[in-house]
Amino acid sequence: MKVTVFRKEHFNAAHRLNNPSWSDEMNENIFGKCNNKNFHGHNYELIVQIRGSVDPETGYLIDLKILSDIIKEHVLNRFDHKNLNLDTDEFQNLNPTAENIAVVIWNILRKQLEDKYDLTIRLYETERNFVEYDGN
Q1: What is the DSSP letter of 54?
Q2: How many other CB atoms sit within 10 Å of the CB of residue 96?
Q3: What are the DSSP calls for 75-89, one per residue?
Q4: Which of 45, 70, 91, 98 has the greatest number of CB atoms lying within 10 Å of its CB?
């Protein structure tokens, strides 16, 4: 019996989309307002999706309190109220687009979870713009 559970979290972070190998004009043309030299921020909504088999002894797929603690320790503490470009190692040489942030979060959490779980990350940058990554 396969089921899927979800944990929704929230964090705030600033970033600037910029490719340092491009001219200022090209960066502005491609990234627009997101290339603001003084950065800009988002209220990110993070949904962590775990899929797998229910443990017949506990009735859980995964204890959601444990999942919440993992997300807090390894993602929220790292990115919440940070400037992703300046305050994090992950984005020193990686453009902090929503796509890249989702992949980074997936990689972080994948290391913390047993292989028996399928993991999907959904990251809302705004209410209408979101990305999803499942490791493929």
Answers
A1: P
A2: 22
A3: IIHHHTTEEHHHH-S
A4: 91
Closest among 22, 13, 18, 14 to 35, alpha carbons compared: 18
Q: Across residues 36-54, what is the average pLDDT? A: 97
Hey, which residues are catalytic here?
Answer: 34, 81, 125
pLDDT at 107: 98
Structure tokens at 43: 């209220």
Give the C-alpha separation, 47 to 92, whole Å: 24
The set of residues, in sequence order, having a beta carbon less than 8 Å from that of 79 and lying 6+ positions away, is 11, 13, 88, 101
Contact (CB, 8 A) for 106 and 114: no
Encoded tokens for 61:
């797929």
Q: Tens digit of pLDDT for each residue in 110-121?
A: 999 999 999 999
Position of tokens 């444990």?
A: 66
Q: What does DSSP say about strands 118-124 and 40-53: parallel, antiparallel, or unpaired?
A: antiparallel
Question: What are φ and ψ of residue 45, in 5° steps?
Answer: -110, 125
Tokens at residue 70, please? Answer: 């993992």
Give me 48's structure tokens: 């962590």
Angle at 24 between CA 23 and CA 29, to 5 degrees: 100
Six-digit token string for 68 = 């919440």
